[in-house]
From TrEMBL:
Keyword Glycosyltransferase: no
Family assignment from sequence similarity: Belongs to the INSIG family.
Keyword ATP-binding set for record: no
Cell compartments where the protein resides: Endoplasmic reticulum membrane
Its membrane topology: Multi-pass membrane protein
Domain of life: Eukaryota
InterPro entries referenced in this protein's UniProt entry, alphabetically: INSIG_fam (IPR025929)
Chain ranges passing through the membrane: 57-75, 112-135, 219-238
Primary location group: endoplasmic reticulum
Keywords from the UniProt entry: Endoplasmic reticulum, Membrane, Transmembrane, Transmembrane helix
Any Pfam family the entry gives: INSIG
One GO cellular component, as annotated: endoplasmic reticulum membrane
The protein's name: Uncharacterized protein
């Protein structure tokens, strides 16, 4: 059905004579601009993906480096911890020394490299196990830098207390440390991942120490308790740090 010129004039916009037909193309132009500039093509997205992957690889390398030197530092700490009674400087590093001696029979790495590799393994094991044990609905523990620093402060504070407080016996000191470990685990973490892996590492350390001693030589209880205390709390620190770096 054809329209007369007067009807067409009445239905045209008032500014049609100024802007000509472009006034009716606003919607079409907006769609073209949106498709061209707002929605990037696959070729435009690929550089961003490459940069993101590169950044993630670099961040993972830096995180593993931090865990590596943490392993070296904790090995040094184990040689310097003692109390005013029966615990001597070298005693808590006995398990690490035995493991290093065994690893050198397989692959002759420097001692600090073995300690660093153990640090990386301890730090990465907790985030991996969290994926299997922690559900999405379960509340995850704090993994910010403040929580990690609190764990470090607790560890260094306990080590300082063990060295400076005048204990009545080494068994008293190791028992008090064990009770503090339970409180610190509940307060700072409370996850099954750290509890299982920390208990496993502590149990292996006790077994290595006990089996490495002479058959006729009795292993004092305080010594075994100290081993459990130190390695469990150390693993709590590694777990918190690993979560923070690899979350």
């Amino acid at each position: 059905m054809k329209h007369s010129e007067s009807e067409v004039t009445l239905t045209r916009p008032a500014l049609y004579s100024i802007y000509d037909k472009d006034v009716t193309n606003t919607v079409e132009d907006y769609k073209v601009l949106k498709q061209k500039f707002i929605t990037p093509s696959k070729n435009e997205l690929s550089p961003h993906k490459t940069i993101k992957i590169y950044q993630r690889v670099l961040y993972f390398f830096v995180s593993c480096s931090i865990l590596f030197w943490m392993g070296v530092m904790f090995a040094k700490l184990s040689t310097e911890l003692y109390d005013n009674k029966s615990l001597k400087k070298w005693m808590l590093s006995y398990t690490l020394v035995k493991f290093t001696q065994w690893s050198n029979t397989q692959l002759p790495f420097p001692t600090y490299v073995v300690y660093g590799i153990l640090g990386v393994l301890c730090g990465t094991a907790v985030p991996i196990l969290d994926k299997f044990l922690l559900s999405e609905k379960q509340t995850k523990p704090d993994t910010d830098l403040k929580a990690v620093l609190k764990c470090f402060n607790a560890l260094f504070g306990i080590c300082l207390g063990i060295r400076t407080i005048q204990w009545s016996s080494s068994l008293q000191a190791s028992s008090a440390w064990g009770l503090l470990n339970l409180i610190l685990w509940l307060y700072f973490d409370g996850t099954l991942s750290v509890l299982l892996l920390g208990s496993l590492i502590s149990g292996i350390s006790v077994a290595v120490t006990y089996l490495s001693m002479n058959i006729n030589e009795s292993v004092p209880w305080f010594y075994l308790l100290y081993i459990v205390d130190f390695y469990f709390l150390s693993y709590l620190v590694f777990g918190k740090t690993g979560r923070y770096l690899l979350q």
